[in-house]
Amino acid sequence: MKKIINTPNAPAPIGPYNQAVLAGNTLYISGQIPIDPKTGNLIEGDIQKETKQSMENLKAILEEAGMTFEHVIKASIFVKDMNQFAKINEVYGTYFDAETAPARETVEVANLPKFVNVEISMIAML
């Protein structure tokens, strides 16, 4: 059985999907882009600010599901420019303890929704 997870503290979906789905004890979080949920505006022009907003959106969804970043077992980062990797990684790393950080891949892509520079999705378990 699945449970839909949505919170007003993260951006509303921009298509036919939900912010997250809890299946059993596993939470699948849709990719989050740097949209400020309070204003609906994109955060642009600074990859570190964009990454932070994406991570804060993920944090809000995790909290809605009763979880934290400690529950994350897998992350996927999609970037438009791999040359930004170090800056993205610097911000991303502040959300995890290096010794218990989740598995992850980082992939450079041609484009992302709303033409943002970064999108991050996660899988977490209770």
UniProtKB/TrEMBL annotation:
Superkingdom of the source species: Bacteria
CC terms in the record's Gene Ontology section: cytosol
SUPFAM superfamilies per record: YjgF-like
GO molecular function: deaminase activity
Pfam families xrefs: Ribonuc_L-PSP (PF01042)
Family: Belongs to the RutC family.
NCBIfam families noted in UniProt: Rid family detoxifying hydrolase (TIGR00004)
Record protein name field: Endoribonuclease L-PSP
Native organism: Cellulophaga algicola (strain DSM 14237 / IC166 / ACAM 630)
